[in-house]
Amino acid sequence: MRYALVVPAAGSGRRFGASVLRKQYEPLAGATVIEHALAPFLADARCHRVVVAIAADDTAWPHVAARCGERGTCPIGAVTGGAERAESVLRALIALRSGLDDDEWVLVHDAARPCIARAEIDALIAAALPHPVGALLAVPVADTLKRAAVTGTTAVARTEGRESLWRALTPQMFRLGALAGALEAAQAASRQPTDESQAMEWQGYAPLLVPGDVRNIKVTTPADLALADAILQRNRTTRQTP
Ligand code: CTP
Ligand code: MG
Question: Which atom of ligand 1 is nearest to the CA of 113?
Answer without folding.
Answer: 15
